[in-house]
């Protein structure tokens, strides 16, 4: 949607041979009672004299250098003409040392369009406020550079809290605030832009503002110019959708026919994930109710196939909103599959070789024919067997897929997992516990006569294959036979330096 507005602007076209201006083109709006200043600058620092061919159109004020107060390489351009016709003036900057002259053509033109610059029109709760900035274009589509000093009126004209509950008298949606304005000084995520410092101090709203979501829903933001000469300018309207930063877990899952799994909902709040329960605001919906069925946070596989689970927010419209916004709700993919194989693993090292008195987790998982892991819910169980004299079970999940326990003694035991007609086995090998002798060594140190000392370490247990290493090889080295040697002369050098 385009909105057309009439302003008077200056186009500052900078052309120079030996020196260059910071902006090749600058557009400045002109009002009846205020002026928008803009600073032009010569990129090559030096001492410049400033002049204009038509002082009735623009005023040039040099900005004196802080280090060399007798020199100026920048100047403030201020429109002084209030005429609403095309006019041209020339601004000259002369280098006092070389005599080189930079020329800028100042063109008065008319602003043709007004719009809003923003990276998104969807805001998330508990995230940094989003900045919204106004822009204007001339009839040729050129954007002018500054709206500093121009006051705008920002309004949240309507806010919709979409719920299933209707008021009995009107039948309209319940209303609550979903969006609010913030100044840059109120935000913990932003610094006050230099162009907005004066307005923030005076409590005025300019061409840039922050918007923060408070509750999920939709809102309409309106912007207008509070100047009589622009009373004909149509109000700009921007539709905003406020969403919660929600994650649905699991996001991709395989289940068995007849099995039930639970979904959990997490919300990202100030950089941390917090679990939230399904309530009067959030609910799950199956895209294909013939493949799975939904009850509260539970999903049950009905027949083989794939579908999507959608997390709905009753504050957000299901389809395209009346203002044209179409939010994308959190989704999860559910595939109802058959189990084709069983996989066994010993966690956390994913190795069936271990030692005595070590805590482990035996994982028994079902897989599809294409090796996709199936999440087993509460309907089915897997059976397992192993020698309890070698591995002691301390805790077991209800469906039997996880067994938490501890190894007891040296030896080996087969671990067998069974589900219906599927079977898998693995051999757990338990070696003696690792021991190191000596565990603590106190080495004498004489800074006046540091000598290298040798220490023999002995390792026992495990499978007898050891890899030796030193945390600080500058002080102690060790070979692969356990022989260590101190290098206390390294300490002597440090002592001298300190």
Query: Could you tell me how far the N terminus lies from the C terminus, measured between alpha carbons in angstroms?
Result: 71 Å
In angstroms, what is the radius of gyration?
Answer: 37 Å
Give the helix level as a range of percent. under 10%
**What value does the average pLDDT take?**
83
Which segments are poorly predicted (pLDDT under 50) over 5 or more consecutive residues?
1-17, 163-175, 494-498
Total number of β-strand segments? 39
Biggest β-sheet description:
8 strands, antiparallel
Main attributes?
498 residues, 8-stranded antiparallel beta sheet, 3% helix, mainly beta, disordered N terminus, disordered C terminus, 2 helices
Structure overview:
With 498 residues, this protein is mainly beta. 3% of the residues lie in helices and 48% in strands. It has two helices and 39 strands. Strands 1, 2, 4, 7, 8, 10, 12 and 13 form an eight-stranded antiparallel sheet that branches. Strands 26, 28, 29, 31 and 32 form a five-stranded antiparallel sheet that branches. A four-stranded mixed sheet has the order 9-15-14-11, with no helix packed on it. It is flat, with a radius of gyration of 37 Å.
Question: Can you give me a brief rundown of this structure?
Answer:
The chain has 498 residues and is mainly beta. The chain contains 2 helices and 39 strands.
